[in-house]
Task: structure prediction
Amino acid sequence: MKKQFYVYILASKRNGTLYIGVTSDLVRRVGQHKMGETGGFTKKYSVHHLVYFEIHADVENAILREKQMKKWRRAWKIELIERDNPDWHDLYEGISG
Result:
């Protein structure tokens, strides 16, 4: 099976602090954020609810998308989240099995 890459958005709460990242193992990476293993920004601001993610076939496109999204206005990020996840559910349970 071909490796997939993920661009994801974490939130502290609905309309709260947002974090955008990229990974090849979404379950493991979000789990690390939830356990505070990543340190830094997400630990400091309790940003660990997975509210959005998208799948990419190669790392180059995933990184380009991450950089693009980080430059977006906050309203665009919220619109993207609410398009697929209007109630800001934590999607982690659905992907972690």
Summary: The beta strands are 5-11, 18-23, 49-56. The chain has one domain: 5-96. The chain has a mean pLDDT of 96.
